[in-house]
Amino acid sequence: MKKKIVILPGDGIGKEVTACGKKILEQVAECFGHQFTFDYATIGHEAIEATGNPLPDESLEKMKNSDAILFGAVGHPKYDNDPSAKVRPEQGLLKMRKELGLYANLRPIKLFDELLAASSIKPEILKGADILFFRELTGDVYFGERGRKDQGSTAFDTMIYSRYEVERIAHKAFKAALTRGKKLTSVDKANVLESSRLWREVVQEVAKQYPDVTVEHMFVDAAAMKLIQNPRSFDVVVTGNLFGDILTDEASQIAGSMGMLASASIGDTVGLYEPIHGSAHDITGKGVANPLASILSAALLLDISFGLKEESETVIKAVEQTLKDGYRTRDIADAATPHEKILGTEVMGNVVC
Ligand code: ATP
Ligand code: MG
Fold this sequence. Notes:
- The chain has 13 helices and twelve strands.
- The protein is α/β, with parallel strands linked by helices.
- The chain binds adenosine-5'-triphosphate and magnesium ion.
- Adenosine-5'-triphosphate binds near residues 259 and 282.
C-alpha cells in the first residue's frame, strides 16, 4: 500500500513523541511491505514564531493533500500568562479541525493489564475495561447562540444539534460497534433537553440499519456514575460535544496516565491522529515523555485511515509486550519498577519498534 502521511510535531513534547510515532509507522511499512512517505508541516507556537500564523496555508495544503495526519501538540507557557494574546497556538488547532471537517473525535479507553496495579481504581473493577468513545466535535452548546441580557446579569448558551450532525456520527459509531463487541451506548439527557430528544430519535432511526448492534440509551448523569462503577459494561459510546468532553476526561483515569491515551479525529476526508495530552512544557527537552500515546495514535491511523487492521493490532501488541517485559516511562512506573527498566522517550519507542 502506498500512502502519504503528514507529520505535525507542533510544540513541546509533541516533537519528541511524534518522532516515536513516525518510527513505528516506518517499522510497520518495512515489516508489512508498505510504502509510506512522510512530509512535515508546522503548527502552533513554532509556526507563530516563524510566520506569525498558527496554521500557515502551506501546512493546511499539505494536510489536505495527504492520506493521514500524525499530530503532536500545540501550546507554550508564554500564552498562559497572557490570556489577551491575539494570536495563540490553539487557534491553529481549531482552524485545522474546522478546515478539515473533523466532526468525530474517537478516544479508545483501554487499560493494559500490566498497569492495573499502578491504578488508583480497584483492579477487580477495572480489569478488561475497553471503551471506544465517539464525541461529536462540531455542534452542541459550543457553537449555539450565546450572549448576555438584562444589562449583563443574565447569560445564556444554546445547545443545538441538527439531524445530519447526529446521523453522521451515529453511523461512524455503529460501524465501529460492528467490529467490536456489537454494543452501543448513546448518552444524552433526553428527559430534560430537546436537543437530546432529537439526538435519541436520530440514533434510534440509524440503529434500524444496524440490527446486529445492541443499543442502549443512557442519561449522562447515569453514564458518569456507571463509568466508574462498572466500566466493563461499556463498549462503544456515542455522545454530544459537551457530554463527551466531560465523560472522556473522567474515563481517561481508567487508563492510568495521560501519556497512554490516543485519539483520532475523523470526518469525511483526511483523518488526524494525536495523543490526548498537550505540549507539557514542564517535561519538554528532558527526554522523559511517554511516547505510547503517540505510538497508539499511529495504530489508530493504520486501522481507521488505511484499513490496516493486522498492522494496527501488531503495534498494540508491541506496546503490550513492552509493558509485559516491565519497561516503563516515568509517568507509568511505580515503586516496584526497577531503576533500569525506567526508560526515556526515545529508548521506550525503540523497544516498541
Ligand atoms: P497544554 O497546555 O499543551 O495542554 P499542559 O502543560 O497542560 O500542556 P498536558 O500535556 O496537558 O500539559 O499534561 C499535563 C501534565 O501531564 C504535564 O504537565 C505532564 O507532566 C504530564 N504529561 C502529559 N503528557 C505526558 C506524557 N506523554 N508523558 C509523561 N507525562 C505527561
Ligand atoms: Mg493540558
